[in-house]
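Obj: model holo form, ligand = zinc ion.
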Amino acid sequence: MLRYLLLTLTLIALHSHAGESLLLTNVQVVDVEQGRLLQRDVLLEGGRIAGLRQPAAPAVAERTLDLGGRYLIPGLWDMHVHFEGTDLVEDNALLLPLYLAYGITAVRDASGSLAGTVLDWRREIAAGERLGPRIFTSGQKFEGVDSLWEGDREIADRAQMLAGMDEQQALGVDFIKITENTLPPALFLETVAEAHRRSLLVSTHVPLGLGIFELAAAGVSSIEHASYLLRLGSADEEDIARAVRAGELGADDANARYDRDFNQATANAAYARLAALDVAVTPTLIGGRQLAWLDETDHSDDAFLRYLTQQFTAKYQWRIGRMAGETAAQRAARKERYRLIAAQLPPLQEAGVTLLAGSDSAALNTYVYPAQALHDELALFVEAGLTPLQALQAATINGARFMRLGDDYGSISPGKRADLVVLEENPLEDIAATRAIHSLIRGGEVFDRAALDGMLDAAAARKQALETGRQ
Ligand SMILES: [Zn+2]
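Output (holo structure tokens):
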């Protein structure tokens, strides 16, 4: 504990104040909208970007920071994370500063079992009482009665849905999340429509009993997990959904038909319709990737385990256990399915669908490490065929616009909040550059490499303290 306190004190000493004006010089600004590098000095004032200036213009700031020709990007946003485990509150809390150390200045919490705690963290971080990324949260997600997931807002009818929506709104959640474990299709659709009627953003899975365009017509803002989009490769998607809803077709048969029918041209035409309806997609590739290659990968020496308690990684066994009986053919099919899902990214991008980079990191999502997994996700976007710029957009400007905060976040432009990451290499050439972080600026406050390393060391020390306390 003493070591943790000392590290925390060191952090306070190492970063500089947000209030003073600061001129960043000798830096290449990555313009994430146009995909170009700008040789500009960046003036920060009052936590915001006051202006971009020609280099060597007379100094106007109280302080100047020479960045040695490095690259400046907007703070990264992870648009799909979960904080879960009622027995893992401290285990999750210690990870919050890591997001900053990994260049991530905002996360969108797509619900877990810690809704009330996450709302507390959101307030504490905003108030400067806790180190962490800005949190957007759905609060409890909507589900049917006796759902598989812990902590859901379970609803049985329209009245309960409306009461739940009132309550979520009163809590000030940032969006509504809906999943399909036990929620009947009709009530699922009504919940989407109600959130939309209240002008709330609404992110969902896709029940087998609903067509993706039925959801779009009801006002869905984003579909979480690109795996659902494979259904659009079937020309009969809405008929299949209707048959499932009517009880004429079982889930296994419906899925078999989707597998059999998949046609890329049919899917691509549907993606253009989806883009026209302004429905965004959060692909979340890394989780499926980790599971599909579990049989060939040894994770026992992963560096990130430094920050994860045994109680946290114990949750990984749930999914590993569910896959234990798979045959060689099933394992091969899992890899093939991953490749087909990943292959949807270029046509989605081409069609104009807004892609949001989200890791789906969660204690229940095996080897999807919080913070680090966003960088893994971006690498998979590029491996799937997107350009580094498109991947970077999915983790910056796209998320900001999606959250209706495009005027305040997402690019390095005058008036926007000074949430910035300084990189050693050019991310437009190689997306792996997002991992080589020289320093972070959050609301104008500078965290140099030593300060970021201090956060990492503090998290590792906190993990050790939790383990020791539990022995
Ligand atoms: Zn998720």
